[in-house]
Amino acid sequence: MKAMVIKAQGGLENLVYDDWPDPVPGPKDVIVKVRACGLNHLDIFVRKGMPGLPVSMPFISGGDIAGEVSELGSDVSDWRVGDRVVVQPSTAEGMMGEEILGGMAEYARVPEDNLVRIPNDVGFEAAAALPVAYGTALRMIVTRGRVQAGEKVLILGASGGVGTAAVQICKMIGAEVIVAAGAEDKLQKLRELGADHLINYKTQDFSKEAWRISGKQGVDVVINYTGGDTWVPSLKTLKQRGRALTCGATAGYDPKEDLRYIWVRELEILGCNGWTKEDIATLLDYVATGRIKPVISHVLPLSQGREAEWLLEQRAIFGKVLLVP
Questions:
Q1: pLDDT tens-digit series, residues 55-86
Q2: CATH code of the region 2-129+294-324
Q3: DSSP code per residue over 202-244
Q4: Which CATH architecture has domain 133-271?
């Protein structure tokens, strides 16, 4: 089969469209013919190398996989060839695309327990947009963050996969949504998604602007998976007993801290690391019933995986980037 193969950790030149042996199913596995694979910042981290998490090279990343069952392991009984499925990438063996081989390929080996059936009226591309970004957003906002109708929520970096998911989920709940992004065209698209207030963080101080929008009372929740020098300013936006939600740190994981805001305002700092198979099924139902619509920025052929990661790395996207074999 063909795959986008990381030959060695480092720059984009190490990501190569190449031949790779076809996967072989174990007794409780299926082989999925990949119809769409969504990219995430995790794929960039794997390619560049993550401290403390060595990955044997060469390697295939990509955790957001949707496709058709093409082959069954000897002990698989609940699935049939041709079934339309999306993958819960967090397996008992490790995270697909991070610890075990992922879906930036024509075929992928998947444990049968990690399959979720795609409803007939949901397409492969929409399904492939869901697991990592939308799954993380759902768990972060609902399970961890306990966001309620009427609360004010500030979302930083709102134009990416997690951000566009967060906007839709918060609006579905009935929250008042403030978004921050770095380009006017992205902000207007966020307004079309339902955002109530827009902040251009390149021309405005997002912390002061969010404080103003909140009537100088502070927001109930800030969603910050950027980290870096945005961390302390985001804490400043919160009201007494506000919640800061984080699921990553694309701009740096060791920011300067200011503990005064945490103890004086009795803030909650809540992390989110993952999602469940049930979360993915819930999201598929939301898509099927029109409650959310995955935002897809680019759909590129598998052979253009290098270009896809470049778009993601340069933040030249609005929503998800997908590869199609």
A1: 999 999 999 999 999 999 999 999 999 999 99
A2: 3.90.180.10
A3: TTS-HHHHHHHHTTTS-EEEEE----GGGHHHHHHTEEEEEEE
A4: Alpha-Beta Complex (3.90)
